[in-house]
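Thread: quick sanity check before group meeting

JM: Hey all, I'm pulling together slides for Thursday and realized we never actually wrote out the predicted structure for the chain we discussed last week. Dropping the sequence here so it's in one place. If anyone has concerns about the input, flag it before I start.
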Amino acid sequence: MKTFKVYTKWIGYSEIEVEAKSEDEAREMVDIGNYEPENEIHTGNGLEYGYEDEEILEVEEVDNENLD
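JM (edit): ok, ran it. Output follows.
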């Protein structure tokens, strides 16, 4: 059996909770990635909407010898 990595893209959504003094500060924190990943839910992992127009971009075989 071979292993493949399939790259896809779709229109999806996420919801991220951050503590900030203002809406602008909250936007900036998310823009620079200054938030805890466990405070994010996204399409396919908690949100019940999204996955519009999913398409496969690339498929590549994974070298099973380097999976350690």
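AS: nice. Helices lie at 23-31. The chain has one domain: 3-61.
JM: adding both to the slides.
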